Predict the 3D structure of the following.
Amino acid sequence: MNDSAPSLSPLIHLVDDDAAVREGLSLLIATVGLRVQAWADPQAFLAGFDRASIGAIVLDVRMPGTSGLAVLEQLQARGADQPVILLTGHGTVDMCRRAFKAGAAEFLEKPVHDEVLIEALQNAVRQHVRSRERHQADQQARERHAQLSAREREVLGLIVEGLTNKEIGRALALSPRTVETHRANLFAKLGVDSLAQLIRRYAALVE
Amino acid sequence: MDKAWHRRTTAALACILAAAGGAGWLAHTRLQQLQADFETDARIVHRLLSQRVVQHDAILSTLALLQPPAPREGEADAALPRLPAVYPQILDVLRRPAGGAWPAATPALAAAEAASRASGHAALAQPDLAAGRYHLVLASTPASYALHIDLHASVPREEWPMDRATSPVRVTLEHAGQTFTIQSGHIPAHGWTYGFRKTLAAPSQPLDVVALRTVGWSELPWLAMLAWCAFTAAATVAAQALWRQRVARRRAEELLRLGQVARLNTLGELAAGMAHELNQPLTALLSGTQAAQRLLGDDPPDLETARTAMARAVEQARRASDVVGRLRRLVERPDLAGQAQPLPLATAVHDALHLLEPECRAHAVLPEVTVEPGLPAVQAEPVALQQIVHNLVMNALQALEQVPAAERRLELQLTAPTPGQVQLTVRDHGPGIAPEARTRLFEPFYTTRAGGLGLGLPLCESLAQAMGASLQLAPGNGRGAAFVLRLPAATPAP
């Protein structure tokens, strides 16, 4: 479970073409203990940012060359899972709609209040961490499920349906003892200790 | 280009069609009228001539019945010689006594008598239609009689339906290839020909009445046709002109609207640019100071970083103020006072109202302008002055939208309350201005209208001040609002 968990504090990517804005916001974000990596050029950011990092992305909408909305769309296209917070000097309803449609987590107006920005960032980071954990758990569950034999999968399906060992034996024409063995094996392979754990983690994987 | 050409061609075609159609209809109507007249005349002629020749039959029958003897020398009251005197068409009465021969001893008379005896009615003998003469023989016993008839005298002149000298109709009597011309008429070489042929209603005298009428080209109603064509052409030209005028007007309206949209777009772009230019330093400034606040609140406070943050914040505040300064210089107006010139205020007001005429009409408002006599000229920049008047009148019209059309009044008064000043008062009878709004009216971006920018009155005020004039809201509460523009009077040229 600890194989790829980030050992460092969350990293915020800040993309804004204005140096003063980068400095001010970086300082502000750093005061709550988040790490900040500031980017002046959207293309350099897209090419160079650490995809695996836990954290969030803050994008200015109005930038020369590539607008924040375009960067957001490219991030989505590349499958980046970091939540994105957009900042704009003058938000129109249309722009706001486009931003949320493209998957923005937040849409804030400049100049932004510290509390608003920090709360949005912390929410985003929490959300990202949760989604990564969920993703990892899913990943692990899938891998373990794949190790089951065909018979064990059948037994798992019937357990999830709520059948007793005896009933499973009847359904699969096996002796209750054999069913018991399969059951013990699949509990061990899936790394669960109780029926409740088994149902919670693996019910979704049973076809 | 192509469309205009197409439209013009269509119009020309329609014009030609209408002209030709109308003219053709006129000609057709005239021809029909002439044909109807001709046929009526021909029928009358046939009836008249038939009556005459039937008379001949009656005379012969009477003679056959009475059997008057042939006149002898000295018997003046014999019946036979008296007949030509009573009937001018009868040249002579012949008698063939029983067993005797015809006086003229013509074989034709004898043959006709034989024919008459066979048919039971009188028969023609020796017709000489070219000369207009024929004999009519009735076989009877003991004596047979014959009349020598002159066709010239048979034509009833008094009852004749046409003027025989001038009528264009040719009327002839025809029999066996011979023709007697009653009236020669005028037959042109080309035209529309109508014919009439009917045998006289007397079996004894089977002469054909033939009438011929040719309507020549010259008889068509050329004047009326020409007038119609001219009328059609004029109507087409007028319609074209009207259409062009409408197009031009619509284009002008469209351009005006486009101009307004373009101006709004420019304004929106300016506002967006300004927002960005100001928001960047403000964002840096706000985040820097707030970060400093947080750093100072830490225990222990990070004084060094906080100091740096504050120094940067100061820089950003300067940067924001530079942006504002740049913007001001960008939109700064040239010196209006320097361009002021003497001009009559009444003319400027009139020009502005002329431009706003469509709006006034749309709002059902008729501006009432009163001008104090002997008003001096004012010292003003013409465009700025017109802009002020324009804005004031537009505001008044928009205020009047909120009251019923019948109560809408807009007054413009031009007076000279003090020497050296000319005053324009624009007074509307709208709902008036709320007390809390009165003090804020001239603040930029303050507006009571949804969608209003709140720049109209501030602009007017600054334009007025730049010209050395003043713009104020006249005191007063309740219904209506009056704005007073005071302009310096032009000093008379030395």
About this structure: Chain A has two domains: 11-140, 147-205. Chain A has nine helices and five strands. The domain at 147-205 of chain A is CATH 1.10.10.10 (Arc Repressor Mutant, subunit A). Residues 1-7 of chain A have pLDDT under 50 and may be disordered.
